[in-house]
Amino acid sequence: MISLKQGAPRLASETWEEPPRSYKEHAIPIKIILPTAFLRHTDGQKQLTSDAANLPALIADIDQNFPALSTQIKDESGKLRRFINIYVNDEDIRFLGGETYAFQDGDEVMLIPSIAGGR
Amino acid sequence: MEYSCQTYQLKCNECGRTFGNRPLSGCPDCLAPLEVHYDLEAIRKTGLFTRAAIASGPFNIWRYAALLPIPAGFEPDLPVGFTPLIRANNLGRRIGADNLYVKNDSVCFPTLSFKDRVVSVALANAQAFGFTTVGCSSTGNLANSVAAQAARLGLKATILVPADLEPAKILNTLVYGARLIRIDGNYDHVNRLSTQIADEYNWGFVNVNLRPYYAEGSKTQGYEIAEQLGWRLPDNIVCPMAGGSLIRKIRKAFNELIALGLVEDKPVRFFGAQATGCSPISHSVREGWDHIEPQRPSTIARSLAIGNPADGPAASKMIRSTGGWAEDVSDVEVVSGMQELAETEGIFTETAGGVTTAVTARLYAQGRISREQTTVVCITGNGLKTTDALAGRFDHLDSRAIRPRLTDFADYLAELDGVRENELVAAD
């Protein structure tokens, strides 16, 4: 496993009014699980860890550390592609508040291309 | 795990990249679903897809094999499809429709749902790719069909279903000797797990890594509708929606028939049907979105209970582009729809068919479909698989038995109907 923490932007938190924080000290970092199709962008790593506080911070983290993966999961306008689903501990992140959801210690975050069955 | 073919191959609808033929469902670049793309000019030149050539073919989906992704050397032996297209005058009278037809896939061979069409095409490819184990995530009908057809082909089957599936659909999978795994979650959970399994195991999942081939089987419903109408297209199609695939493939079939000159070009409007308890696509159509918002399914129409349909955005866009619409109905209306189709046309459909029938009635009531237009309602599954939905609807199930005596019979009739029949007197 490699950590995304190194090199990630950190916000100063010594001011009296605390600014919004994108990264926090997770007691247990969140775990990111990738499908095989993405491993070519991560040097074969299937799992990554991060201290990102939420989805936008995680994306920024990926931008920083794995730019090729970042291009794969985002479209030209920089938004997450329509065909990728993000799950947090089995739940679609859209049911948890999407970008506003605050990752909890040890959350397992899965990136999975959307493929459905049914008629 | 690849084969080459002159007339079709996988193509990404978003970025246009092509991939030959291999077990792959999403574009590695932009992650969009892949679709089988045909060289229609090459197919036209073969002369294998003309009205005459089709008419001389077998009475099943293989009469359309020239426009299906069937690998060279595959010898189809199951007579799948070619289900009845029935003029539905009685139902039409009830809902105000003069030219109403039912495409009755509740009697599709071999497992009584339209899934037999898609599975037969998927498994032909599974064999060509060399898979010895096949599987699927399923809301039931697909499970039944994969289990049955895998048994026939001598393939091992591992099937994942949501734990709360109807008992009949579980039994109808196990009987074929398939390995069935119930998952503690809804279909979307099952499907996500299947995606991960297909990523790790060398298995052919019909609706995951074989999905582009699988989905093409749905086109045969469209070909049959056109041929059974005397090689013409209807004005409207009303189709149930779960993943959003079938409704698009019927349109693809119609467009291919137009391109190859088998039918006259005319606009066909597509109408989608969902249950309110799981209606992400009809919601998207009504809002005019080009995306869908996932839902947590809660409906008795379990075969349509996909809260996050991958083909949902494309289906929503397509429906609106044809001038069609989508509606969703409550579970109470679903059961009424099942009974209405049975009482008027003698067709016992599952809950999904109740959805489609009830939505059709509503579309006529709303005036979205006018009475003289030719409309085909797609019935995709059999009521014998979802009898639980009718529990409590009929007192007779536990009514008392009567003695085998004519007087008891007459008394009982009087009790049932509230009046005494005088037929006995008339028969004297």
Shape of chain B: globular
Number of strands of chain B: 13
Number of strands of chain A: 6
Q: Low-confidence runs of chain B (pLDDT<50, min 5 residues)? A: none
Helix content of chain A: 10-25%
The profile of the biggest β sheet of chain B is: 6 strands, mixed
- Percentage of residues in strands of chain B: 5-15%
Taking all Cα atoms into account, the compactness measure Rg of chain B is: 22 Å
Order of SSEs of chain B, N→C?
EEEHHEHEHEHEHEHEHHEHEHHEHHEHH
Structural class of chain B: alpha/beta
CATH topology of chain A: Ubiquitin-like (UB roll)
- Helical stretch tally of chain A: 2
Instruction: Please list the strands of the largest sheet of chain A in the order they lie side by side.
Output: 1-3-2-6-4-5
The CATH architecture term of chain A is Roll
CATH architecture of the domain at 85-111 and 219-390 in chain B: 3-Layer(aba) Sandwich
Instruction: Give the helices and strands of chain A as they follow along the chain.
Output: EEEHHEEE
Q: How would you state the average pLDDT of chain A, rounded?
A: 80
Structural class by helix and strand composition of chain A: alpha/beta
CATH class of chain A: Alpha Beta
